[in-house]
Amino acid sequence: MAKQLAFYFDASACTGCKACAMACKDKNNLPVGINWRKVFDYGGGGWIQHPAHPEFMIPNNVFVYSTSTACMHCEKPLCAEACPAKAIFKRDDGVVLIDKDLCIGCRYCEWACPYGAPQFNEELGVMTKCDFCQDYLAQGQNPACVDQCPQRALGFGELDELRQMYGNINAIEPLPSSDISHPAIVITPHKHSQPSGQGTGRIIKLPEV
Amino acid sequence: MTEKNFLTKALTKTALTRRSFLKWSAALGGTAALAGGLGYGLKAVEAAAEQAANEGKWVPAACWGNCGGRCYNAAYVVDGVVTRQKTDDTHPDSPDFPQQRGCARGRAQRHRVFGADRIKYPMKRAHWEPGGGDKSLRGRDEWVRITWDEALDIVASEIKRISETYGPNSILWGTEAVGAYCGYINTWGSTSSGTWAYTAPRVFGSQSTMGNDRLDMRNSKLIIMWSTDPTVCSAGSPAYHYLLSKRAGAKFIFVDPFYNWSAQVLADEWIPIRPGTDTAMLLAMGYVLISEDDPENNPLIDWDFVNRCTIGFDKNNLPDGADPEDNYKDYVLGLDRRGRVAAEGHKNYPPKTPEWASEICGVPPEKIRSFALEIAQTKPVAFMEGDASARINDAQTMGQAFTAIAALIGSIGVSGGGFGQTRHSAAGNRGPNLISAGSANTVLESLDNLCELRINNNEFWDAVLTGEYTSAVNEKTQVNIQMVYHTKGSHLQTKVGQARGIQAMRKVEFALATDFHMATGCRYSDVVLPVTTMWERDNYITNPNREALFWMNKVVEPLFEAKDDDWIDRQLGLRLGVYDPAVEEISDKQQSFNRIAGATVLAADGKTKETLVTITQEDLDALGVEGTPQTGLIPVMEYFEKGTYQVPRKDGDNFSYIANQAFREDPEANPLRTESGKVELHCRVLAEDIYNLGWSKIRPIPEYIPAKRGYEETFSDWKNKVKGPYPLQMYNKHYWRRSHSEFDNVLPLRELFPQEFNMNPIDAEARGIKDGDMVKITSSEGSSIRRVCLTERIMPGVTNLPHGAWTEFDDELGVDKAGSDNYLEAPVPTVEGHSGFNSQIVQVEKWDGPRLLPDSQWPQRIPIKEV
Fold this sequence. Notes:
The complex is a heterodimer.
Chain A: E1 5-10, H1 19-28, E2 38-49, E3 57-69, H2 78-82, E4 88-90, E5 96-98, H3 108-112, E6 119-121, E7 126-128, H4 134-138, H5 144-148, E8 154-158, H6 159-166, E9 185-188, E10 202-203
Parallel strand pairs in A: 1-9
Antiparallel strand pairs in A: 1-8, 2-3, 2-10, 4-5, 6-7
Chain B: H1 3-8, H2 18-27, H3 47-53, E1 57-61, E2 73-78, E3 81-87, H4 104-107, H5 109-114, E4 123-125, E5 143-145, H6 148-166, E6 171-172, H7 176-181, E7 186-188, H8 196-204, E8 222-226, H9 230-233, H10 238-247, E9 251-255, H11 261-266, E10 269-271, H12 278-292, H13 303-309, E11 310-311, H14 328-333, H15 354-361, H16 365-377, E12 381-385, H17 398-409, E13 419-421, E14 435-436, E15 454-456, H18 460-466, E16 468-472, E17 475-478, E18 483-486, H19 491-494, H20 498-505, E19 510-515, H21 520-523, E20 527-530, E21 540-545, E22 548-552, H22 565-576, H23 588-597, E23 600-602, E24 609-611, E25 613-614, H24 617-623, E26 634-635, H25 636-642, E27 644-646, H26 661-665, E28 679-680, H27 684-693, E29 715-717, E30 722-723, E31 728-731, H28 747-752, E32 757-759, H29 761-765, E33 774-778, E34 783-790, E35 798-800, E36 809-810, E37 815-816, H30 821-824, E38 840-846
Parallel strand pairs in B: 6-18, 7-15, 8-9, 8-12, 9-10, 11-28, 12-13, 18-19, 19-20, 25-26, 31-35, 32-34
Antiparallel strand pairs in B: 1-2, 2-3, 4-5, 4-20, 14-23, 16-17, 21-22, 22-27, 23-24, 29-30, 31-38, 33-34, 33-38, 36-37
């Protein structure tokens, strides 16, 4: 029995294709507006005149990498702490779940979560989020996002084992510092990954999803 | 709270069954507002109830986009409706034997099949009359439901009337029945392959024998990715193959206007280059290699290969009758026939130095030089290109210039090497198929198309509007097209010149379209016929790549009144009298079975073909087909259930493919299929064939020709670098939302991929444009509006409008709102008559008009609002 299930994300392999996000939307029938797994392109740098040939513009530290993020099933789940209805609980295996029967849709957890994981479903009137595909796990299968990734950039397992295999990094831009809620995730950084809070870039996207 | 309780209450309680789907869909009001008011095309389902009831079944499901992936999907079917999907899990995943995992589009396939915007029954335009009625209302009219009989009668009678009135050559596109009755005009011209279509067979003998297989590519030390982004353009496995090459130690250099999504994972270095200027850079690289090569102290050129396996490198190796100045070396070095630097005005002037090229391509001269040296000094190097730089006006010789470099640096015919097109399903993994389907054994002969006329892709809309097209050198011919049949291809959306196309659609007397959704062809037609998707048919058999064969059959019964294309054609043909009602083709199911019965797979020796499936009489009965029992590798029913057979691979197996290895070893015994049997750096046939098409005259060597609508034309005064009215280049990257134009209507994909227009912040700032602003993009053809996503990953002076969005022209605003690339694209026939999608010039300005809603919030195109 796992103590803390965690996702593994290999940022060095992620192309930002969003197959994982779509797999999650498909498996969970998420409507437009709700994305339990999200993918962000983060990048920066600029263009400067070539020092010897000013008629040429050249890229100056242009960088981009993508980050796929869902619920972190945090060791210190702030969503559960914030919930006035005690609708959010952490299982013995570390997975954090929302009990829809108890949720009153007040959206406090949405405010509390540093990762934007809990999202309000207007039709249902309750909060929803990544549940680690716990129905698939119960049948010995993998989460939908993990199985979909054409780059094999997603994995999961026991947090301690993942750390032994891949190291301790659990925060990169654009994710927040891991000191806030201690996310259960292990990340292999992209060569351009920047530490949370020290980024020189920005999320590259149109201002919606 | 127990888990079981959580599980059963996790999702909404309404199970989506086929009956309820059909009823619900009929009750769908005019709005797309469904669950959550967000215009989602499907109702939520209760996964828990499905599983608890255990009613559903996983079946293999086709992914039928023309994307080069066509990966494995499976659909969970509950009472005739698909409630969720999954990708390949038919065998454990490993780098050598990878699952055929799909992309976001394939995972959203069920939205195409079951979306609320599915066309349900035949329709005619409310204001249509024979002859067209008010044709200006095409694209703006209401729709009226009609029966199949009514629809087919209308189509048949208009075909008869138009062909009788206007004679042959009056119908554009068609199906077999139309061809057999009166004939229809076909269009022609390379689209995806750009100028490789003519260049590759003549310069190199083939398009398909250029790269090596994916395991061999792990031997590459350096892989050049020139204008290619397999992550997006061949989504699925190819990017993973390249990632494994990287992990095996290959360095990657990308040459591209955009630091693309493959580059972000693979690139050790990015060389930004202006679209359409590749030939200039390639020639300059040749200049560096030739002028700096020293076989003893600094060997840069594979002289052994050049001397034995090419013609045209210098004046000593030219075909009889050739002009001695038409050789690669003298052209590149800028020399005349006496070997002296040519004077200005001479056809070989100027020397193609890095300085000369850099002014055109935007790559600093030192970088051109160091890049050329690096690829010549590293072995083995794979010199790959993804066709984007061939989809440029006038760029006929790009492929020849590219091939010349590949020849010089020794990439051809070696392990870890390879060169040329890395594209579509063969991206990162070339080689003959390891597994192939057999013959369908159809019984009927296809009927010929009575019309032999073909009009080039760059001219056919003008041919409708002006009544003439280019038929030969200096020759135009009249034509009077009065009917357009949009079928089996989204021509009005995916061919250049869409703005003219819309005008043309309002000129002809009759137009009809077949489709699953109200895509562009349907919008501008008089009659719309609903067709079944591949999930509603048997007989989807495809090689997603050389290693696997998919056999996918009906996932669900045809929805509403949708019919197969073949059924439509047959009904039309019976009305036109070209088919014998007493004779029918064998069913799709039988054809499909025949192909599988005849399928073969290579044995481990890499040579012997083995029969794939074992068939018993019980199997024949179970499948309901005719056939004979046979012995093979796997039981046919096992294959039927799984939908895929993939050949396992491993290091050292006999399935490797090193392109042109035998040719390199002995070019006389293993000639290429070129005129000389060798690589033609001087290609007489290419020049002759291009000339005879009637638009261009090119030399037989890779001369640099400035592209029409290319970088040079952004200037009104090139010498003084004064910009003209269209100062920015625009090109059209493939985009994850779509496979060409397919999937554009799928709401979750519209949400994930918002069809942003990309500009560099420098160009935006100069125009007072901020990130997320609405902008108007204007070409000589018209204007589109989009929201801009500023990014440093595109070079200044270049913009990207993702390829394939379905045009949505707003009559009041006078602009296309969808960002349809071909709406802005000018059709310019040059050289081989390919489409220069990536050579376009535009102006961009801030748009102060109404702001667009995000694409995912646009109403779905539901043509008839039922009560």
